[in-house]
Amino acid sequence: MSDSRPPIYVTKPFLPDLKEVMPYMEKIWANQILTNGGPFHQQLEKALCEHLGVEHIALFTNGTIALVTALQALRVTGEVITTPYSFVATAHSLLWNGIKPVFVDIDRDTLNLDPRKIEAAITPQTTAIMPVHCYGHPCDVEAIQKIADNYNLKVIYDAAHAFGVQCHCGSVLNHGDLSVLSFHATKVFNTFEGGAIVCPDAKTKQRIDHLKNFGFVDEVTVVAPGINGKMSEFNAAFGLIQLQHIDAALQRRAEIDARYRAELADLPGIRCVRDSGEKVANHSYFPILVDAEYPISRDALYARLREHNIFARRYFYPLISDFPMYRGMPSADPSRLPVASEIARKVLCLPIYPALTDEEQGRVIEAIRGACRN
Ligand SMILES: *Cc1c(COP(=O)(O)O)cnc(C)c1O
Questions:
Q1: Considering only CA atoms, which of 130, 139, 137, 160 is closest in space to residue 60?
Q2: Fewer CB in a 10 Å sphere around the end CB: N or C, the chain?
Q3: Res 364: pLDDT
Q4: Are 180 and 197 in contact (CB under 8 A)?
Q5: Ramachandran angles phi, psi of 141, nearest 5°
Q6: Matching InterPro entries, A to Z (predicted)?
């Protein structure tokens, strides 16, 4: 059976009306500042600090360069404890710094790094922990900070999924030493490509600003082997426009999330991953776990959806620790990562994005329910 209706992808980037973009372009053309911390770059940093409820933010060309730079800024070396259940850029940022990733298993409920398993992985070489707020669900930030304090470790959160997420003490981005955001096209808030580092003090932001501009402090002074990580004026201007639409976008995501939960609740073997108790969620993904009670396997459901022209994604499968540059490491052994390995076999992320229509969401739900009637 093949479906002739239009394809539904796991996500679709939010784009404002092109008419809204033109006045910003005209300003860039008029003042001829294209990059290097121009006026839109400064405006977006300020606007994001206010919107997110954070003190300082440094914009980047993408989230991966921001992760690499965050590790440089804190002079992290040796070994870093991280999760295998994430997008591959999390661990790649460690390899780019010559750091050895040490994978630790995840918690079965939150799918985030399990704080109870961190201590056993600490060695004299460990200098930091890099957890991920997976799907925008906050990590157990208190437990992680306690371990970091006891062992004098830095904490850098990969917060690529966590734009706008608040735990009970305010923005989740205020935890740890640094938090890194991604504004990639597929993320909740996008600037085409983009990213940022959230930092607690002006001095750290200044160091990061030097590092993202080749290490330049002034015309003749270079203080570090920095990289080119700057966000362009186009991306920054686009971010300012996106910010005007973000509340409506998150509202629509919340509706889609609620309907999936309601209409999949009674299906045997389909478990919707719960949030981890955040005060404000961003519904950046809609992961379900396909258990043995469901009539077909996860991969068969994935294929069935494709036959219906629905492109769900198996985030995060394979685990990072299963890729060739990691799998030889002792901590990458699947027997040490039983929860992450099981979840990677069961997970499927369903389409969720502001422009998903009720009819389209109905198609997704119907295709999943249909397997139970065969
Ligand atoms: C998207 C993503 C990144 C990388 O961000 P880019 O902006 O695409 O470089 C890093 N970590 C996680 C968890 C991500 O989902």
A1: 160
A2: N
A3: 98
A4: yes
A5: -65, -35
A6: DegT/StrS_aminotransferase (IPR000653), PyrdxlP-dep_Trfase (IPR015424), PyrdxlP-dep_Trfase_major (IPR015421)
Ligand 1 pocket residue status of 82, Cβ below 6 Å: no
Q: Is 361 helix (H, G, I), strand (E, B) or coil?
A: helix
What is the rounded CA–CA span in Å between residue 176 and residue 156? 6
Do residues 57 and 45 lie in contact, with contact meaning Cβ atoms separated by under 8 Å?
yes
Structure tokens belonging to residue 281 = 């969620």
Structure-token match 């669900």, residue found? 137
Q: Is the CB of 284 under 6 A from ligand 1?
A: no
Burial 222-241 (b: 16+ CB within 10 A, else e): eeeebbebbbbbbbbbbbeb
Strands 100-103 and 79-82: parallel
User: Residue 60 Cα, ligand 1 centroid: separation in angstroms?
Assistant: 12
- DSSP sequence for 135-156: GGPPP-HHHHHHHHHHHT-EEE
Question: pLDDT below 50 — which residues of the chain?
Answer: none
* β-pair partners for 181: 196
**Cα 230 from Cα 191, distance rounded (Å):** 13
360 CA → ligand 1 middle, Å: 27
pLDDT at 3: 83
Domain-by-domain residue ranges, the chain?
8-12+246-370, 18-241
The confidence score (pLDDT) of residue 1 equals 56
User: Is the CB of 160 inside a 6 Å radius of any atom of ligand 1?
Assistant: yes
**Class (C level, CATH) for 8-12+246-370:** alpha beta
